């Protein structure tokens, strides 16, 4: 199964997949609106605004698995992120990014781009995965790596 075939749900609960983004560079991020890293939403939005017409898709996948820092769901979550951080890039339905109920997307991402010392586990909110135009996961970034530091990697793939 390719990355594009993995089923996801929109923040409205509608079934979808990532085939919409075939041929684009994707930056996939597990987000949480109450996390200390939430200010990164602004940097992600800036990347979205600056590079969307060149083929970048920033995609947020909220997760509540780290200290319950994502209590919101669906449209209320999208509205909160838009009002507080200016987010207009897609935020999908809340998912598990680790553990026995890990979403197939994150199973794929963590297998393709292990973390520190080969770890396949997501350690915290705002872990980022950069995917090239062919659907290959090319780089994983720790939560502490800001969107501004990722920009040069995005530019290379565009």
What number is the mean pLDDT?
93
**Looking at CATH, which topology would you report?**
Glutaredoxin
Helical stretch tally: 4
- CATH-derived architecture: 3-Layer(aba) Sandwich
Low-confidence spans = none
Order of helices and strands: EEEHEHHEEH
Structural class: alpha+beta
Distance between the termini: 25 Å
Strand content: 15-25%
Family: Belongs to the glutathione peroxidase family.
GO molecular function, one term: peroxidase activity
InterPro entries: Glutathione_peroxidase, GPX_AS, GPX_CS, Thioredoxin-like_sf
Pfam family, one: GSHPx
Textual characterization of the structure:
The structure is a single chain. The chain is globular, with a radius of gyration of 14 Å. The chain is of the alpha+beta class and 158 residues long. The chain starts with 6 loop residues before the first strand and ends with a helix. It contains 4 helices and 6 strands; from the N terminus they run βββαβααββα. Helix 1 runs parallel beside helix 4. The strands form 2 sheets. The protein has a 4-stranded mixed β-sheet, with helices on both faces.
């Amino acid at each position: 199964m390719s990355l594009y075939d993995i089923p996801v749900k929109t923040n409205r609960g509608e079934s979808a997949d990532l085939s919409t983004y075939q041929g684009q560079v994707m930056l996939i991020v597990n987000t949480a609106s109450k996390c200390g890293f939430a200010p990164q939403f602004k940097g992600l939005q800036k990347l979205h605004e600056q590079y969307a017409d060149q083929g970048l898709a920033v995609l947020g996948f909220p997760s509540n698995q780290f200290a319950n820092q994502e209590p919101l769901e669906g449209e209320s979550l999208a509205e909160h992120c838009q009002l507080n951080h200016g987010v207009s890039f897609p935020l999908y339905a809340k998912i598990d990014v680790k553990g026995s109920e890990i979403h197939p997307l994150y199973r794929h991402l963590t297998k393709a781009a292990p973390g520190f010392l080969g770890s396949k586990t997501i350690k915290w909110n705002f872990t980022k995965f950069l995917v090239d135009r062919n659907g290959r996961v090319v780089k994983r970034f720790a939560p502490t790596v800001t969107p501004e530091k990722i920009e040069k990697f995005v530019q290379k793939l565009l």
